[in-house]
Specification:
Layout: H1 2-22, H2 27-34, E1 42-52, E2 60-65, E3 72-74, E4 77-79, H3 87-91, E5 95-96, E6 114-118, H4 122-131, H5 140-148, H6 155-158, E7 162-176, E8 181-193, H7 196-208, E9 216-220, H8 221-226, E10 228-231, E11 234-239
Parallel strand pairs: 1-8, 3-11
Antiparallel strand pairs: 1-4, 1-6, 2-3, 2-9, 5-6, 7-8, 10-11
Organism: Flavobacterium sediminis
Protein name: CD-NTase-associated protein 16 NUDIX domain-containing protein
Pfam families: Sa_NUDIX
Length: about 250
């Protein structure tokens, strides 16, 4: 009898062990969303990347204005884009961001990885993102849109760039008062690796200094840590919390 029971249970236990192993990096999230109280809640995802662009030989960084949040500076970057049709996302009971559950979607932000799904599909979304299928996989687009198309940097000098991925920071199932829901926030941080010509251009930009009328600022570590940008001892802009990630801090 014991041998028969072992035979019957072995595939079940084996499958359970496989599930645990495959989701070992997100076990707490797995149990909360597959079994726990988050299973039927709406979970908002925001999956983004950002650039650490340091002015050579200084502790200052290039930040740009957020086009959606007035008077806020932050690193170059934004939400990853998804490709393909909606069939997979519809299976997860997907809801795009809107004025009520997030940031409103316009033509430029369509297909951004900012959306809601039911909690029971949280792990599927996380595994899909890790698979790198049917989604944007590099940060070139936002670099071009925010720095080259705006003429903050010279296109001829920065048309081709090198960079490295230095960290991934995530916050799982954190409550957002602003959106009135639980969120999963993911940020990939890339560091620009400038060549000699690009270094000289960044040094020159640092000498010119900030120009909020042109939607950029050169900001030092102290301002980033305090999340405010000062000019003439007055705060002239706030700095997004996630900016701390480029100076190896958390938020």
């Amino acid at each position: 009898m014991a041998e028969l029971l072992t035979t019957l249970l072995k595939p079940i236990l084996s499958k359970g062990a496989t599930i645990v192993w495959e989701n070992r990096n997100n076990l707490t999230t797995y149990f909360k969303t597959k079994i726990g109280s988050y299973k039927n809640k709406d979970i908002r995802f925001s999956i983004s990347y950002l650039f650490k662009i340091q002015i050579p030989n200084t502790n200052k960084y290039l930040l740009v204005k957020n086009r959606r949040i007035e008077n806020q500076l932050q690193p170059v970057g934004g939400a990853y884009k998804r490709y393909g049709d909606d069939s997979l996302f519809n299976k997860w009971e997907y809801k795009p961001d809107n004025n009520k559950n997030g940031l409103n979607v316009d033509e430029k932000s369509a297909s951004d990885l900012r959306f809601m799904v039911k909690g029971k599909y949280t792990i599927e979304v996380m595994n899909w993102f890790e698979s790198m299928q049917e989604r944007e996989i590099n940060p070139n687009r936002e670099f071009r849109e925010e720095l080259l198309d705006t003429n903050i940097l010279d296109t001829n000098i920065f048309q081709n760039i090198n960079y490295k991925h230095i960290r991934r920071f995530s916050k799982n199932l954190v409550w957002s008062d602003f959106f009135s829901c639980y969120e999963i926030l993911v940020f990939d941080v890339f560091e620009l690796i400038p060549n000699e010509e690009q270094k000289l251009a960044l040094i020159e930009l640092g000498k010119v200094g900030s120009n909020l009328n042109k939607d950029y600022a050169i900001v030092d570590c102290d301002n980033i840590e305090q999340l405010r940008y000062m000019e003439n001892e007055k705060q002239v802009a706030r700095i997004g919390q996630h900016t701390k990630l480029i100076i190896n801090k958390r938020f």
